[in-house]
Amino acid sequence: MKKLLSLLLALAMFAGLALPAMAEEPVTIEFWYSFENQMVEQIMTVIAAFEEANPGIKVKPTYAGSYNESNQKLLAAHAANAVPAVQQTVQTSIATFAENGVLAPIDQYIAANNDDMSVYAKGMYEAYSYNGQQYGVPAFCSVCPTMYYNKTFATNEGIEIPKTWEEFDAFLRKATVKDENGNTTRYGCSFAGWGSAYFGPIFWENGVEAFEDEEMTKTGLGSEKAVNVIKMLKGWVDEGLVKWCYGTNASTNMRQSLIDGTSFAVFHTCAVYSVYQPALANNGYEVGVAFPPSGEKTIADLGGSGLTIMAKATEAQKEAAYKFIRWLTQPEGNLVVIKATGYMPVTTECLESEGCKEWVVANPELKNLYDHMDDVYAAPASPVWSDIATKWSDGLAQIFLEGVDVETGVENMIEAINEILADM
């Protein structure tokens, strides 16, 4: 064999023959995902299309569990030098992973490919940057909270959906139904109290700042404006106009309350539109969709996840991974995700595509969200934000559900948050 190869090389040198190219092994990139079951089949179709268009790259999709489980596995894999190439990453983890060298910045790949990243929604894209570097792209993004409501009730009872928080009290009083004993049989709205992405915008829209300083060392969650919002919410909860959903099965119970008509509206994520729409239809109801009410600001939190590349992947894997994450956010790939769930378009390219326009015609309620693509922003890029958010949600639950008075509850909550900031 060696003599044959030498002979071929000699002939090529002296006779100008072109040797056949040696077949290269495809670059394999492992992709850790956390999709729910209804998305897996569609995503696999997109991956197959990517591999067909890029025969030199093979994608190994691996279910890594929930976002929290995937994050824990990734930290262990990083320590063991056994990382995947790509992870489906929530934006609240970007600061922590970037600080600890887990993620690779993608700026050099953007520059090398002359990619125009301005096509991404500004707030969504900025969520995947940290300290002046870009660590990923938004891919599976949701509006939190999205206000789902029973449009059939609204039409039959002449109930207008509030566009501002000033209108919300009157809306609740009209949408809430009580029996002759004063017990609530239909809440005007149920709020998701288990996650700050769902209730946080109520505070941001009413002028509350998560932090009072640029260094993010002093929380604003105990400010006068924050206390006023808490008192507003507590008043509605105490009157039986609002249900604050928290604890075991909170998400399932809240979802079911809209489906069976015991809540007129719920504050949830747009990512479950594909669940609410057919479920309400099966009960003879039409689902309505609205962006959260405005206050001093018009803003919603960014939910869902994006795609990131691992720092310890090989250079060949990083280059292949960059092609992959960009493919998944092209209009064709993005639209597959949108139709399977309720996630948002992440680029103007997708929003303006014929496929997306047809989707909106078939699902006109979603236009109420798509018109606000530039009003969706990420939670604060603090490495300890998830810990702070947990203390915040626990503290609100104690005030709304356990009878702790507002002043004491806020004091306890801020003390716990300050301890987190002091240890940062």
Description:
The chain is α/β, with parallel strands linked by helices. The chain has 19 helices and 15 strands. Strands 1, 2, 3, 6, 14 and 15 form a 6-stranded mixed beta sheet that branches. A 5-stranded mixed beta sheet has the order 11-10-12-7-13. The protein has a two-stranded antiparallel sheet with strand order 4-5. A hairpin with a 5-residue loop joins strand 8 and strand 9. The N terminus is likely disordered.
Rg for CA atoms: 25 Å
Number of strands: 15
Terminal CA distance: 63 Å
| Content of β-strand | 15-25%
Major beta-sheet overview: 6 strands, mixed
Helix-and-strand structural type = alpha/beta
Oligomer: single chain
Average pLDDT reading = 92
General form: globular
Annotation field: number of helices: 19
Outline the low-pLDDT stretches.
Answer: 1-23
| Helix coverage percent | 40-55%
